[in-house]
User: Which sequence fits this backbone?
């Protein structure tokens, strides 16, 4: 008879809500503004997509109540126990309290759904005591404690063993992030399942080295030669796209999504609604994106 593996599951119900409305995060009271702007929760779908792909039957879940996990998990046929209680409005203190109670249950692994802010909350309680796996659902995910996708998370869980590796938890200044300034400092380390094929790598935020600057210049020059008139270009975030925009002569934001038409900026720091308006307005559209953070 297989020994059941005890798995904690906690969902940050507001993680990622700032993305679609251009807020670059939901730390502090930013989630209230996101809701006012029409943002919808993204984490329920992420965890449900993951749970649907889990094939093993030796997992016993200890799940956070209500919208912090229970609502999603009970749609499936896993054995589970609800841990703790929550009010309608939740915060980081709830996350930490619930994780402490999960530790008392003797969990072997904690699965959390959120972004870097959630990872920091997890570290504050766990440190290196219990392995974790992050399912990406935030706006900011620079820490390499997250699976690449919901599919990758399920693969890690399906092939779970006792091997772990320490990965960094990074502290991103969200206020600076919203202002287009990107910097990170080491916050701590968490143990994650050893499976590099399905874990994201750490995103770099340091100053660009000379060879990288040359490479970005070359990419920008190549793109510039391909630019066509009467074409709307939607430009993603990052220093490479900023270099392209600089060569076009348009003042792009570093970390936002912007749009240019005939070498003029027609949209900055666009949210979902702003993008949809441009898509309706313009006939010919191209999207230019690159990997960010040195990936």
Assistant:
């Amino acid at each position: 008879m297989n020994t059941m593996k005890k798995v904690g599951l906690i969902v940050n119900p507001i993680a990622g809500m700032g993305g679609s409305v251009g807020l670059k995060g939901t730390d502090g009271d930013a989630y209230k503004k996101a809701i006012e702007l029409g943002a919808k929760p993204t984490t329920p779908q992420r965890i449900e997509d993951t749970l649907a792909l889990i094939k093993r039957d030796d997992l016993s879940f200890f799940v956070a109540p209500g919208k912090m996990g229970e609502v999603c998990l009970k749609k499936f046929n896993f054995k589970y126990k609800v841990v703790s209680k929550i009010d309608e409005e939740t915060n980081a203190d709830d996350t930490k309290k619930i994780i402490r109670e999960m530790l008392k249950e003797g969990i072997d692994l904690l699965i959390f759904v959120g972004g870097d802010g959630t990872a920091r909350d997890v570290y504050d309680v766990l440190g290196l005591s219990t392995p974790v796996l992050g399912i990406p659902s935030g706006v900011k995910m620079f820490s390499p404690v997250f699976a690449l996708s919901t599919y990758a998370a399920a693969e890690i869980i399906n092939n779970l063993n006792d091997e772990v590796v320490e990965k960094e938890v990074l502290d991103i200044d969200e206020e600076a992030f919203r202002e287009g300034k990107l910097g990170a400092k080491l916050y701590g380390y968490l143990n994650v399942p050893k499976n590099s094929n399905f874990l994201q790598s750490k995103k770099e935020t340091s100053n660009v080295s000379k060879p990288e600057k040359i490479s970005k210049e070359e990419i920008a020059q190549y793109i510039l030669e391909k630019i066509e008139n009467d074409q709307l270009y939607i430009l993603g975030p990052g220093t490479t796209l900023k270099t392209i925009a600089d060569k076009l002569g348009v003042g792009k934001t570093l970390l936002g999504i912007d749009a240019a038409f005939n070498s003029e900026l027609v949209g900055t720091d666009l949210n979902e609604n702003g993008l949809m308006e441009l898509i309706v307005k313009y006939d010919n559209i191209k999207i230019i994106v690159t990997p960010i953070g040195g990936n």
